[in-house]
Amino acid sequence: NAGVTQTPKFQVLKTGQSMTLQCAQDMNHEYMSWYRQDPGMGLRLIHYSVGAGITDQGEVPNGYNVSRSTTEDFPLRLLSAAPSQTSVYFCASSVPGGGTEAFFGQGTRLTVV
Amino acid sequence: DAKTTQPNSMESNEEEPVHLPCNHSTISGTDYIHWYRQLPSQGPEYVIHGLTSNVNNRMASLAIAEDRKSSTLILHRATLRDAAVYYCILRDWNAGGTSYGKLTFGQGTILTVHP
Questions:
Q1: Is residue A22 a contact partner of residue A37, using CB atoms and an 8 Å limit?
Q2: CA distance B104 to B4
Q3: Phi, then psi, of A78 in degrees rounded to 5
Q4: A44 vs B: CB within 8 A
């Protein structure tokens, strides 16, 4: 049981490049989400999904796309990377609902130069 | 989303109890109170959650005020490994549409533990 797996752990991109951050979970959780964390800040919600085919925007969705074709995977796409997207990205999953524990990945540290 | 207010930082000595407060005066009846912590260079990890009654688990205790407008996370004997940022979060199990279950983080409380 691996939990939530994020790849890659580190990535450097040039401005304007695109890439996909991968997130996979093996707990059959319906709810998955992406956060970004800037230095000295809390986590901000980018996008989330309550099941395959259902996604919604969080508080900072601009510049990012998501799709959810399977329960296990929830990739985050950067369409045209900008230096302002330099951050640490965390993926989380849980059973939907208020009284359940969320599990987080170890993060992807992204630098855009 | 209902908001929470936490002190920016707190300090404790090793082996002593720590009480981390959280105010959530706009909490709704369907909000669970969650606590997560984030160790340096790691993803957040679940600590505890509750709805109305006090809760205990192997990591901590959660004391919830009778009116549910505040709560306190209690670490019974702080260790150096408990030094982290602690987040108090409200998680709604009954919001409409796709919103239910969202976890919205605030700034958290930085806990420093002194040897």
A1: no
A2: 10
A3: -100, 120
A4: yes
B51 versus B1: which is more confidently predicted? B51
- Nearest 5°: phi and psi at B3? -105, 160
Compute the distance between CA of residue A18 and CA of residue B57 in angstroms, rounded to an integer. Answer: 43
Q: Where residue B2 falls among pLDDT bands split at 50, 70, 90?
A: low
Closest CA of chain A from B111, distance in Å: 14
Q: Which residues contact B15 (CB under 8 A, 6 or more apart)?
A: B77, B78, B79
pLDDT digits (tens, 9 = 90+) for A34-58: 999 998 888 999 999 988 999 999 9
The phi-psi region of residue A52 (left if phi > 0; otherwise alpha if psi is between -120 and 50; otherwise beta) is beta
Q: Which of B51, B101, B104 sits opposite A96 (nearest CB)?
A: B101
Host H or E run for residue A20: strand A19-25
CA atoms within a 13 Å half-sphere pointing along the CA-CB vector of A77: 6
- Radius of gyration of chain B measured on its C-alpha atoms: 14
